[in-house]
Amino acid sequence: MAIITLTSDFGLKDHHVASMKGAILSEIPDANIIDISHNISPFNLIETSYIVKNAIKNFPKDTINVIAVDAEYSIKNKLIVAKINNKYFVTADNGILSFMISETNNPRFFEININNETDNYSIKTLINTACHIARGGTMSVIGKPISNIKEQKSAEPSITEDGKKVIGAVIYIDNYGNVITNITRDFFTLAKGNSKSFEIIARNNKWKTIFNKYNEIENFETNNTNIRDGQKLALFNSSGFLELAIYRSNLKTVGGASTLFGLNYHDTITINFY
Questions:
Q1: Which residues lie closer than 8 Å to 183 by C-beta, 6 or more apart?
Q2: Which of 166, 180, 227, 270 has its CA 20 to 30 A from that of 61?
Q3: Are 171 and 50 in contact (CB under 8 A)?
Q4: Using CA of residue 35, residue 36, residue 38, residue 39, what is the dihedral sign?
Q5: What is the DSSP letter of 209?
């Protein structure tokens, strides 16, 4: 049974998600359709890549991933299908797949042949392509091979020339209001080198300790285990990214890290090493 995942910025109020699923089931009645997310911020490729990349690593090989974010066909935004790490991706050549190939060898890319007979042919083409692959079809039948895809560099952190500072950015804000940066554990370790201490700076907020999980901030030797509720912390999250959070935050009461720290997408995060 084919596994087809769907990711979009369509939301759930309108008919678009149901239409995609209906089109797939009309072609493949026993398809296993999995929603990754349809609440992507409109046209936000960095957010999309963070969610998709961290979700699909848990899926089996040959999973087919349809990514309908900024996927309207144009001369500058062609539709492509790719095979990366034994999984298929059907989307637009808008730079999003450049985030998916950092840890892979020999990715394969094909530009999809376009049939614009319908008003919404971009989404129709993505769905038809996914169904073709699900039936055992090859990528070469529906497209021509290409060697290069668009790249997105805005999501990469950097190290200053003197090696004493990392400059990163906010790439995602999760359901709890926690702020995820583009600085990974590996990048941090490389940049830190032999430095003895560091300081994370985001607007007027500073952190000098990075935890490995949220409840490390707790002092379980005391009877009052909620003593740390509402306090700020930095940690490397389960995906290996540096995250700035409020411990046990509640968006309906005290608020989350994003609002309390005044941070939003693309805002700068710096780390100074000493």
A1: 157, 166, 168, 241, 242, 269, 271
A2: 180
A3: yes
A4: positive
A5: -
How many angstroms separate the Cα of 25 from the Cα of each of 33, 115, 126? 9, 21, 14
H helices of the chain, where? Answer: 16-27, 45-56, 121-134, 139-142, 185-192, 257-261
Query: Tokens at residue 95, please?
Result: 């730079």
Q: pLDDT tens digits, residue range 52-93?
A: 999 999 999 999 999 999 998 888 889 999 999 999 999 999
Integer Cα distance of 171 and 45 in angstroms: 10
Q: What phi and psi values does residue 167 have, to the nearest 5 degrees?
A: -115, 115
* Tokens describing residue 264: 């939003």
Q: Is the dihedral of CA 131, 12, 115, 147 positive or negative?
A: negative
Residues of the chain by 3-state class (helix, strand, coil), percent to 5? 25, 30, 45
Angle between helices 121-134 and 16-27 (to 10 degrees): 40
d(CA 151, CA 93) in angstroms, rounded, equals 9
Query: Which residue's structure tokens are 């957010």?
Result: 47
Q: How far apart are CA 184 and CA 187, in angstroms?
A: 5
Distance CA(120)–CA(70), nearest Å, equals 13
Task: Identify residue 112 by its one-letter amino acid code.
Answer: I
Q: 159 in helix, strand or coil?
A: strand
CA distances from 5 to 8, 58, 103, 144, 261 (A): 10, 12, 21, 24, 34
Domains and CATH numbers, the chain: 3-146 (3.40.50.10790), 158-273 (2.40.30.90)
Nearest C-alpha neighbor of 271 from the set 240, 242, 245, 246: 242
First to last CA, the chain: 54
Distance (Å, whole) CA 57 – CA 203: 33
Q: What is the pTM of this model?
A: 0.87
